[in-house]
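hiii, so i know i said id send this last week but things got crazy w the move. better late than never?? heres the sequnce for the chain we talked about at the cafe, plus the structure i predicted for it. fair warning i was half asleep when i ran it
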Amino acid sequence: SHAGMVLSVLVILLLSVLYEALKMGKAVLLRRALLALPRSLSHESLTEPEEEHPGPAQGRWFRYHVGQTLCHVVQVVLGYMVMLAVMSYNAWIFLGAIAGSALGYFV
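okay and structure toks below
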């Protein structure tokens, strides 16, 4: 039916937008993690070199790293879902995936 096809194309379009948004979010998390890491290393080496427990900056870096890992897993799952949908060899679904990817990258 036409309604089912339109719904399928819209779902694929949204999945593609979400995939691109996650890619951007992962890059932001990486930048924040890299900003949090040098401060913790320089702080520890200058003030308490023998201290074993992680400082607040290291904890922040670890949270960013966990967030990045979760984003990566969701991104891989979404990527495979969009790929499988495109492999249905339906032109409308393919165009929906391309349009969603372009829209997600643009926004």
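btw The chain has three helices and no strands. thought thatd interest u
miss u guys!!
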